[in-house]
């Protein structure tokens, strides 16, 4: 466990220092390009992904070592992706096979894949993404899951700016956020609420999708898993996304800001709401 924790600390340090780079992650325009050398590039973030995993399951520690030792596409600087990076590969419209972007579909298992993100609430637990449905959660690091590696500077840490008008800009993405959330409401009410929102001089607000809302979670924080200095009224509850659950249209995805998980619930249940808009760059 100590070895895993020390590697995680190094990875977390790298993710923080990488925030000063010019890499910008525009979740609304996730686009993958097959490099035809066993790797895939995501255009907005610049991250390069291992196209096909090797079909072997590993513990979390073994997964870290596997990516560190990987030689692929002429590169030797591979690493295990963070949870917020790995979840961008999920295609939430897929209803058969692995719920992953089609460029990765060949050979990808409809199963769990490790991330490099330790769960801040328990050092024995590590985040994974389940590519049978697309949810993100954590499990004991001695369990054996599949692995897909990535390379490139991490841009998972938001760079927030308070615009002093009820809005927060994330300079590390293309998005502006509602600073204070509304009261809890059903999914349909949440969709309509954001469409009708007038805030900060803007009228183009929307309910965020899973990828957008995951981008402002903070893996170093717990209850709430968000930077409360910028979102002081945030609660440790679930927040609706516009993403419907492809396997049952009576359900939709939400992000839990107690721990940062992603899961689905009945649309008639009530959850919190934080609206978003695409900002000018």
Overall description:
By secondary structure, the protein is of the alpha+beta class. Helices cover 16% and strands 22% of the residues. It has helices spanning 2-17, 60-69, 83-86, 187-196, 210-214; strands at residues 32-34, 39-42, 48-50, 112-118, 125-130, 136-140, 150-151, 160-162, 167-170, 175-178, 238-244, 251-256, 262-266, 276-278. The strands form 4 sheets. Strands 1-2-3-7 form a 4-stranded antiparallel β-sheet, with no helix packed on it. Strand 5 and strand 6 form a beta hairpin. Residues 1-24 have low confidence and may be disordered.
Attribute tags:
single chain; 281 residues; four-stranded antiparallel beta sheet
Topology, pairings included?
Elements: H1 2-17, E1 32-34, E2 39-42, E3 48-50, H2 60-69, H3 83-86, E4 112-118, E5 125-130, E6 136-140, E7 150-151, E8 160-162, E9 167-170, E10 175-178, H4 187-196, H5 210-214, E11 238-244, E12 251-256, E13 262-266, E14 276-278
Antiparallel strand pairs: 1-2, 2-3, 3-7, 4-5, 5-6, 8-9, 9-10, 10-14, 11-12, 12-13
């Amino acid at each position: 466990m100590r070895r895993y924790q020390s590697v995680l600390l190094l990875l977390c340090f790298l993710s923080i220092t990488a925030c000063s780079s010019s890499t910008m992650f525009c979740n609304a325009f996730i686009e993958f390009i097959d490099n035809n050398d066993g790797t895939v590039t995501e255009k907005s973030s610049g991250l390069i992904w291992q196209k096909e995993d090797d079909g072997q399951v590993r513990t979390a520690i073994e997964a870290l070592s596997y990516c560190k030792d990987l030689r692929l596409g002429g590169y030797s600087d591979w690493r295990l992706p963070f949870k917020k990076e790995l979840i961008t590969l999920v295609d939430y419209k897929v209803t058969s096979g692995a719920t992953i972007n089609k460029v990765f579909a060949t050979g990808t298992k409809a199963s769990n894949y490790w991330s490099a993100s330790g769960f801040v609430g328990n050092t024995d637990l590590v985040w994974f993404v389940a590519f049978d449905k697309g949810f993100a959660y954590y499990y004991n690091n001695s369990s054996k899951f599949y692995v897909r590696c990535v390379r490139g500077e991490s841009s998972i840490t938001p760079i927030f700016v308070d615009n002093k008008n009820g809005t927060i800009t994330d300079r590390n993405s293309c998005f502006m956020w509602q600073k204070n959330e509304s009261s809890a409401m059903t999914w349909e009410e949440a969709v309509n609420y954001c469409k009708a929102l007038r805030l900060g001089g803007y009228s183009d607000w929307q309910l965020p999708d899973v990828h957008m809302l995951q981008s402002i979670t903070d893996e170093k924080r717990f209850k709430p898993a968000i930077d409360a200095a910028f979102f002081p009224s945030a609660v440790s509850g679930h927040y609706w996304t516009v993403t419907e659950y492809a396997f049952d249209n009576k359900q939709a995805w939400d992000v839990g800001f107690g721990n940062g998980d992603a899961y689905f619930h009945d649309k008639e249940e009530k959850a919190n709401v934080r609206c978003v808009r695409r900002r000018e760059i």
